């Protein structure tokens, strides 16, 4: 494997998982995704493989590089702060799993 | 019937205009072709009645001499495009039953130009995948089959994420197909299915109404049978749209004129860079040979080919697999069971969210949301996400530098031909490697096209990719027309409708 070419090898996978079960449940909570306990081992392995693989970026010197968030280089276009569409609650609510009196319905959040 | 299905969109437009066929006849032929090739699992929803109504309206406009650019051309729409009144799911369980109340700008442009909708097309769930195997509707089967070798007799992937779109094009059950490309999702399936696929400059096609995956990378583009159809369809799809803050307000070059120019003058004087870093250890010999052949074809047509260096290429794929999941984890936060899509009840709001998303998303989507959440979380944001954004700038700089000396770059489209369904290594990273040649153009926001250039020893299509500077889709069309002419690729998938 020459140094400058894309790395096809997976031998930088370490034996131990960089992402453990506690971390899986922590990020699953942040992401609001229920993860069954029996899926934890598989996910630890898969996510650890991905994270170990992307860590090769560490070898690239980026000390004086500005992060690039947008390729266009434009500033965001501005427009007048006026209503351009809306006032159609039926359309807005037409795909709601549950609605009542032109409101979305969710489980009770205030005790 | 077979004569009808054999026509390209450009040929069909002529046949419609000189009344040798009606839009209704053309549409009926494609509806039947869709039924005859249903085992490919490419259509997730067909809209035959709507198609016939639209075709009748096209015939009326043609009779009045009022035909649009795509008048009467039947197309299949990737399920990532919101279509007003027609269920749109991004091939995800979580969007089952979602019926948009608005139309995506890209499909609106196509309808405005007279195109006819045949239905919605299978894709990887939320366009996350390279084999169309992550779809909630199940995998799509490539109409191409291996004539020889270890893949003979096996069902092959059409690629992904626009796998269904490439499959309907190869099966001749749609005449044009709009796709979306975040890391190669138009070009890789096009290459696997013997088609032309173009990812335009970021901002050429409005993202309004396209289900968002990674917003700084997502671009729509055409999947077509040949380069002329690609030029035609790209012209229709692109537009400046105030509804998309990253839409580019710059006119598209005249792509039909670029086609004519290539026909008349070849690519005389064009300078083509051959990037050193796209040579990969372990790349199949026939890919290397095809790449060399492509270089020769362009030189024979008057181009000068020179070696160039894009030194940060090896970091493109890992940077992409930080940036894309990070953006996805943010974009997909909207699927919460409140405003649209599926809901699984829970005792509390948080429990409802977690259960809804746990049940609604498939494994690949969950993996990417979790990776994205991890790299954006406190303590890791700088180490992963900002680091990847810095690499992204280095990659864009690499392209800026080489484009001061060359007009376009020539590379293979994919590191292999289509592979068997269900047999790819279960390691998620090995699936990512499909995108190794396509991802850099997304990171840099520049246009790239895949052109069918030959068959593997097993009889499967292989593609070559041209990459051009931002806004130079005309250069791509010129170069692609030249490659197409030299390659003389006129093979048809064994599973094509007739």
Your description of this structure?
The complex is a heterodimer of chains A (111) and B (498). Chain A is mainly alpha-helical. Chain A has a domain at 17-58: Histone, subunit A. Chain A is 27% helix and 4% strand. Chain A has a two-stranded antiparallel ribbon. The longest helix of chain A has 15 residues, at 40-54. Chain A is flat. Chain B has 498 residues and is an alpha/beta fold. Chain B has a domain at 2-264 and 418-426 and 446-487: Amidase signature (AS) domain (Amidase signature (AS) enzymes, Alpha-Beta Complex), CATH 3.90.1300.10. Chain B is 39% helix and 12% strand. Chain B has an eight-stranded mixed β-sheet with strand order 4-6-5-10-11-9-7-8, with helices on both faces. In chain B, strands 1-3-2 form a three-stranded mixed β-sheet, with helices on both faces. In chain B, α8 (227-237) runs antiparallel to α17 and α11 (316-331) packs across α13. The radius of gyration of chain B is 21 Å and the shape is globular. Chain B starts with a helix and ends in an 11-residue tail after the last helix. At the A-B interface, α1 and α2 of A face α11, α12, α13, α14 and α15 of B.
């Amino acid at each position: 494997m020459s140094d400058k070419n894309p790395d096809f090898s997976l031998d930088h996978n370490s034996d131990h998982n960089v992402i453990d079960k506690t971390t899986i449940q922590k990020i699953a909570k942040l992401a609001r995704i229920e993860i069954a306990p029996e899926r934890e081992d598989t996910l630890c392995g898969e996510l650890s493989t991905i994270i170990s693989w992307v860590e090769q970026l560490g070898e690239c010197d980026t000390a004086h590089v500005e992060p690039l968030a947008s390729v266009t280089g434009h500033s965001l276009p501005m427009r007048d702060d006026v209503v351009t569409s809306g006032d159609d609650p039926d359309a807005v609510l037409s795909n709601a799993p549950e609605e009542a009196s032109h409101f979305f319905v969710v489980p009770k959040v205030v005790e | 019937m077979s004569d009808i299905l054999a026509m390209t969109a450009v040929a069909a437009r002529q046949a419609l205009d000189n009344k040798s066929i009606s839009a209704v006849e053309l549409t009926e032929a494609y509806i039947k072709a869709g039924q005859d090739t249903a085992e490919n699992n490419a259509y997730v929803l067909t809209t035959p009645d709507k198609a016939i109504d639209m075709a009748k309206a096209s015939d009326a406009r043609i009779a009045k001499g009022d035909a649009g650019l795509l008048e009467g051309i039947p197309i299949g729409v990737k399920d990532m495009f919101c279509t007003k009144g027609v269920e749109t799911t991004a091939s995800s369980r979580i969007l089952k039953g979602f019926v948009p109340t608005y139309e995506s700008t890209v499909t609106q442009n196509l309808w405005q130009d007279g195109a006819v909708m045949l239905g919605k097309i299978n894709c990887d769930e939320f366009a996350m995948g390279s084999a169309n195997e992550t779809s909630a509707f199940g995998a799509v089967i490539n109409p191409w089959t291996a004539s020889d070798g270890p893949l003979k007799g096996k069902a092959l992937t059409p690629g992904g994420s626009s796998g269904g779109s490439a499959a309907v094009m190869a099966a001749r059950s749609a005449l044009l197909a709009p796709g979306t490309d975040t890391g190669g999702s138009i070009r890789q399936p096009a290459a696997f299915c013997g088609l032309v696929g173009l990812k335009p400059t970021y901002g050429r096609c409005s993202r309004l109404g396209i289900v968002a995956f990674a917003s700084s990378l997502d671009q729509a583009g055409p999947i077509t049978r040949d380069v002329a159809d690609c030029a035609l369809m790209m012209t229709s799809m692109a537009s400046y749209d105030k509804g998309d803050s990253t839409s580019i307000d710059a006119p598209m070059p005249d792509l039909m004129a670029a086609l004519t120019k290539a026909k008349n003058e070849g690519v005389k004087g064009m300078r083509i860079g051959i990037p050193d870093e796209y040579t990969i250890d372990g790349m199949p010999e026939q890919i290397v040979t095809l790449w060399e052949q492509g270089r020769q074809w362009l030189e024979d047509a008057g181009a000068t080919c020179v070696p160039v260096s894009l030194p940060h290429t090896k970091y493109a794929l890992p940077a992409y697999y930080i940036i894309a999941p990070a953006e996805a984890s943010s974009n997909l936060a909207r699927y919460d069971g409140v405003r649209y899509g599926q809901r699984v009840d829970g005792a509390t709001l948080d429990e409802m969210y977690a259960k809804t998303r746990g049940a609604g998303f498939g494994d690949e989507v969950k993996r990417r949301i979790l990776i994205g959440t991890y790299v954006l979380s406190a303590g890791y944001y700088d180490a992963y996400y900002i680091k990847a954004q810095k690499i992204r700038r280095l990659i864009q700089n690499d392209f800026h530098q080489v484009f001061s000396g060359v007009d376009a770059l020539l590379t293979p489209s994919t590191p292999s031909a289509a592979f068997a369904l269900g047999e790819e290594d279960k390691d998620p990273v090995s699936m990512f490697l499909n995108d190794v040649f396509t991802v850099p153009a997304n990171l840099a926001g520049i246009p790239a096209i895949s052109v069918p250039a030959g068959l593997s020893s097993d009889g499967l299509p292989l593609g070559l990719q041209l990459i051009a500077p931002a806004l130079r889709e005309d250069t791509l069309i010129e170069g692609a027309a030249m490659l197409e002419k030299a390659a003389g690729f006129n093979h048809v998938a064994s599973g094509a409708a007739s």
